[in-house]
Amino acid sequence: MAELLGLGDGCREGASGAPALAASCLADNRLNLDVYPDGCRRFLQLFEGRQGEVLRVEFLRLSTNDRLLGTTLGILPRLKHLKSLVLKGGHTRDEFGSCQHGSLTSLPPDVGNLSCLTHLDLSFNSLSTLPGCILHLPSLRVLLVSHNSLVTLPEDFGSLSKLTFFSAMKNQLKDLPQSIGELAALQDLDLSENALEFLPEEVGNLHNCTELDLSGNRLSSIPDSLANLKSLRRLHLHSNLLVTVPASLASLPNLSRLDLQNNCLRAVPPEIQTSPFVRLRGNPLGETEPSPQAGKYESSAGGLRRLFLTSGEDSFTVTSEGCRVVLACGIHFYFPPGAASDPLRIYFRTLAPDPRWVKLRHHDVLLSRVLELQPHGLKFQQEVQIWMPYASPQTLHQREVVVRTFSGQSWSDLRTGVEQKRKSKHVAHCSVLHFSWFLVVSRLVQNECKVPTEGTLLFSSVDPSIKVTFPPGVTEETRSVKLQVVSAEEMEELTAGAGCRASPLLCLSQDSLVDFLRPVRIQLPLPPGVTGLNLDRSRLHLLHGDLEGQTWDDITSQVVLEFTHLYAVFEVTHFSWYWLWYTTKTYIGGIAKKVYERLRMYQVNFIALQRKKDPEQVLLQCVPKHKVDPVLKKLQDRYRGPEPSDMVEMFEGEQFFAAFEHGISIDMDRPDCVDGRLSFIFYSHLKNMKEIYVTSPVDRKGQAVKGQVSFYRGAVPESISEDARRRRKGPDSLWLATLPIKLPRLKPRWGENPSPLNGFSFPPLNLGNAETGYLTQANLLSIARRVGADWQSVGLHLGLTYQQIERIGEDLNKQILDMLFSWAQQNSEDPDCVSKLITAMKESGRQDIADEVETIVELGRQKYRESIRRVGLEQGSSAEDSAIAMV
Known about the structure:
Layout: H1 9-12, H2 19-25, E1 30-32, H3 39-49, H4 51-54, E2 59-63, H5 69-73, E3 84-88, E4 119-121, E5 142-144, E6 165-167, E7 188-190, E8 211-213, E9 234-236, E10 257-259, H6 270-273, E11 278-279, H7 297-300, E12 305-308, E13 315-318, E14 323-326, E15 332-335, E16 344-351, E17 365-366, E18 370-374, E19 384-390, E20 399-406, E21 411-413, E22 417-422, E23 425-432, E24 437-444, E25 446-451, E26 456-459, E27 467-470, E28 479-486, H8 488-497, E29 501-502, E30 505-510, E31 520-525, E32 540-545, E33 552-554, E34 562-563, E35 567-572, E36 577-582, H9 588-599, E37 601-611, E38 617-624, H10 628-635, E39 639-640, E40 648-651, E41 654-661, E42 673-674, E43 677-682, E44 688-693, E45 705-713, H11 722-726, E46 735-743, E47 766-769, E48 773-776, H12 777-787, H13 791-797, H14 802-806, H15 812-826, H16 833-843, H17 847-871, H18 879-886
Parallel strand pairs: 1-2, 2-3, 3-4, 4-5, 5-6, 6-7, 7-8, 8-9, 9-10, 10-11, 12-14
Antiparallel strand pairs: 13-16, 14-15, 15-19, 16-18, 17-24, 18-24, 19-23, 20-21, 20-24, 22-23, 25-28, 26-27, 27-31, 28-30, 29-36, 30-36, 31-35, 32-33, 32-36, 34-35, 37-38, 37-39, 37-40, 38-44, 41-43, 41-45, 42-43, 45-46, 47-48
Helix pairs in contact: 12-15, 13-16, 16-17, 17-18
GO biological process, one term: apoptotic process
Site (Cleavage): 435-436, 575-576
GO cellular component, one term: cytoplasm
């Protein structure tokens, strides 16, 4: 497919375009236009120019964030051959990276006449009621309406007699129709994260149901009829309000997982409590009712409900009793009794920091990912306590750690406590009344005070000899003043190289735009080695910098400088940066500007390592200079490669790119790939690492490929100086470093036919389900090529018996293919088979293949999975898109 998988200029030309291009655009009768911001316009143009071919389309994907959606919907009933229709929102994002729901609120009634339609995905939209035409689709087998605003389902919902998969997770369903028990073919039902308070007895009539997800609701009990679900293998009831469960659940013959975690169960029938497949963590088993007078966390935690969430969960329920919550990533919450008056569903996710909206201030260092908590803005009755782990700033001196939160308009710092749980584990603690976005940063130590009309005195806790005196009458109204200091030790090496000496750097700021009414008196230490006895006044300069540090003016002649043996004293009415320099140089402002810029930069090295067992798996990382040796030591058992690059300097929050060159390439469809280059953001205390699978477009049968990876600068933080910006423009003028990458000559392990496609014929396969993404036949062939000698271990972890493995032939090529495809055919109906394959690779020591499979699947359903399984707000792809993206 050209540009429509990509719809290009030929499609824009209408009927005059080349017939070959039309066939390419509509290959396999698929149109995947949701990846384009103007996908509906492209669809309308294609319909106008190649109507006959469009009418034969069987698989169609469109974004419901498109402004031309309404016009496009009117055409859909004419696509009589349509088998799969995906109309999903979430393709546009707000400034925080949250996916926005689509505008779809209904469907044309004639959509109910699409007799071939078997798969319908309306996730991430604005549906408040289920469109009635859906109930008239005679062949519908898969229906997804996740992330909408449905409050109820139609009474005759059970008329969808062929439905095998239904997901309505993350809606607002309060009850279910009795007719739901008439869905005789239903195998997978996902009603998680709704507002269900009870279930109808008719749910027990879903005799073919193998997986039932009711987690994240408000259920206090479940009907005994669930014991009739003899085909049920997995029952998810975690994160509800259950106080009891029927003992008969333990007798379900095929049940392999019963998740009852994070409920209110104080007693459980022995048959359930002793079952190996039951999970009960996070329940107050054996505890009495908590006292309503419970005090603080430390003294009352034993009487509170404890919730321990796994990595796949993204929400929990808080009641008026309060609770303690521990996330898989190590974040803790304490909700005191009475914090929430009614049961409240809390959603959470962690986000990679994006410098477009995570605005770090000068000299800030980011120490954590971004934590988002919802619902935003809701006020709790009592303060909720949060503990956030962060990267230990071992190399940062005279700084303090704070939790920073976003109000919707700006970031502000919270009163923060710091705890050290273990030698290498640090936690930041804060209390809040509202939920929004949170992150942990290290900043310059900040001293602040209120300045009344009577005046006051402010000292620096970093250097008590630095003080600011506010005389009486300095202001008419009380205002807040903040003081920060960069110590002279931090810049000593930089200034010595410039043939200068500099005092501590003082930053003063206030919350008023009005200058002070009377001069404010400032005392600064003289530069190191300079005293009032040996001072040459002609060499001393007082510099004033703007708040961005981009201009430094010599104001020595504009102020009256007084000297003691150790200090300089002067008066100002305007607050900003102040700096004393001692030098014979004449143009001090330019030197100060460069030194200030260097203060904010980090010395780093790039590494590019290849996995020993699979050289096509390449690990790239940008590492601060002092961490290079420990990082390489940790990786040396599994990876090898060239020496790290020469040292370069980068800003905190600076973007850079990695480009594979000279015969080596990567998958250009990766979401982090920009113009063929991998995008990174450098944060000194976070891992700037990616592991990718590289290929070579050239024939490697007879020779190795000697390529390279080069690193280039990208966007820099907005607040850096214009000089630095001028030095960093143009894609190739921003080169940083180049490291060699060598792909060895392919060994003839595939017999006479090196291609895994030659000599073998396997039926088409789609492994997985509509929400977790598919792996196709081509994906399995690609995986088989990389398994190598680990194939037997992989087979055993996939569940194959020793007898099955022994029956597989002698040729290594055929061994691996037979093993994978025999397993795949046996598990093609299992919606968790892709996850099992990933787990098997990890347990076999092939983390590289596991990571690659996850990356492949992620290309098709990244947004969807993050929002449904972790985030609650982001969108992704389902069945057909995943299959296409992975081929």
